[in-house]
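Lay summary

Proteins are chains of building blocks that fold into shapes. Our project writes down both the chain and a compact code for its shape. Here are two examples, one after the other.
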Amino acid sequence: MKFAELSALYHRPLFDLISQSRAVHLQHWPGEEVQRCSLLSIKTGGCSEDCAYCAQSAHYFTGVEREELLSLENVLAAARRARSQGATRFCMGAAWRGVRDGSGKFECVLEIVREVSQLGMEVCVTLGEIGPVEARKLKSAGVTAYNHNIDTSPEFYPEIVSTHTFQNRLDTIAAVQKSGMSVCCGGIIGMGESETDRLRMLEVLSNFDPPPDSVPINCLMPMPGTPLADQPPVDIFELVRLIAVTRIALPKARVRLAAGRTRISREGQALCFFAGTNSIFYGDKLLTAKNPAADVDVVLLRELGLQPQGVTAS
């Protein structure tokens, strides 16, 4: 969709907008189904990038301890635990600028992926920048989806990171698309960007060919020591509007309510589900940020009459 169309939708009366997004959602998805995903940091801290929101950047003093790549045994244990708790998608993130074919760390990741892919869940990884060769090998190893967020608009992006460009992000996404892996790509709101930046981000996402299969919408979790540590919470109605427009613009994508749910009330999350969210991250931690406890999510979904993907109503 073009920016003008997205803007017109975004500025509709709220109830009209979420009624439209709900109707679009029900055309393409079971209205009561929510996918639960688990996210594990398989390599933490010490990243050479200077993303202003990230506690894992080596440019800032955030208190996050650097950890090397987890062992295969530890990753498998976490994946099995996630599966037992109802996750149908297991995501693994590594704090690297990227990986290259032939490197030891890439070979280790491929081995981990091959083993995790045998557990019957979707497998998603986010490893930074990759090229066509790496993308093909990850797909062959069993990766279902590659996450590489564009974060914000092309115009605002240089305010958030200087160690790579917006085009670098697009190049990795193109390599993922060419490999046949599913693209998981979204952004972060609450970093000081404008309403226009949010809609420009969505314009870029909605014009991917093919469009992303998964669109995580993250609300900034201000991390002590980062340049964005003092940013205020996102207004709930702004978040709901963006989710609704995302659902209309990308009707076949899973719209994933990602980081920041600990700052959103139960009522606010309910509005997000109504507006088009049909996936959440599940578990008490997202990389280095807090997330609602699993049992809290179970209660919320039950009270809203929502069913985790793969679970049949009794």
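And here is the second example, written the same way.
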Amino acid sequence: MTIQQNTWRTHFPVLEHVNFFNHAGVSVISRPAADALARYAHEASHGEGLAGAWHRRLEQVRSVCARLIGASGPEEIAFIPNTSTGLSLVARGLRWKEGDQVVITNVEYPANRYPWQDLGRFGVEMVEVAQRSDRRIHMEDVIAAIGPRTRIVSLSHVQYASGHRIDLAPIAEAVHAQGGYLCVDAIQSLGAMPMDVSAAGIDFLAADGHKWLLGPEGAGLFYCRAALLEQLHPAIVGWLNMVEAMDFGNYRYEFAPSAQRFEPGSYNVPGLLAMGASIDLLLEIGLETVWDRLYAVTQRLVEGLESAGWGIWSPRQCEDECSGIVVFEPPPQRQVDVRRLVAELKRCGHIIVVREGRLRASPHFYNDPAQIDALLADLEACTRP
């Protein structure tokens, strides 16, 4: 690691103004991302970068994305504007037949529900695995729902409303044994912890860059395992999908052999360059270091909340099921309007949110223990009878 802990603060100017704990929502961007946006704006306004320099840099970003998730190479990576687009590429790209099944959970973020639900008009059945009373999605329940008609299991690696992280590899093995595929919404884990799509058996993955990747909205990545590229028909067809996309008058209707086949038109160049700059930062620090730090600060928050009588909604019994999300509830004896509390905390300099009627804090690796302690103190001060 070449970036030392005592320099982390310089990469996140938000720390000069507020304790930001909403990386599971719309994150602040890192200083390298902001610098990339400023550099693009300067180049664009001065006529620089128009001779292919931006697109050469984008191919470097594609390689960095492949490295981030352990893909076999950049040919498995497509750029997308958001997670919904990536999941829809799979939903709209596979050849479905009546009676096929898609296995999801009953607590998915809507981006990982509606694309599959829409397939009902083709006779595709959506099978929901219920979150149990312990707020976990039990791996055994998902595996039990997989059968000979299962074409896709599509899961959030980390659930947005609980923070529960599921073990994907056994599920991948089970669905592969039935001839199906594993599709993953990784927006709540990518950038917060290491990811290896090969080790996890993931076939398709989508994530936007505006959460834990510390990039801007409107820029994300889609992964398709190389062996499946030609089995997934591009959901949207345009000029850039094609094998000779830059030969405009050729009209050669043949999809690119790489994941570029899923990119129908012009890129969000500034957004992708900014996302790439933040990924560079995360990789230089090391995702193992990022996760170790993030786990430590969330544990400090959980332990402080528990000692003050707050209820922890997020499963936190073992590290492997934890994430950067901590969902919690006020002590039962206190009458607390959680939305009013969030507004009061904002005035005190802390940014958290309400999800499904509960409080959700999602710090990142650069938040320090002193910030967590300040949040705990102000939670008490704002809710004390």
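What can we say about the second shape? Residues 71 and 197 are 6 Å apart (CA to CA).
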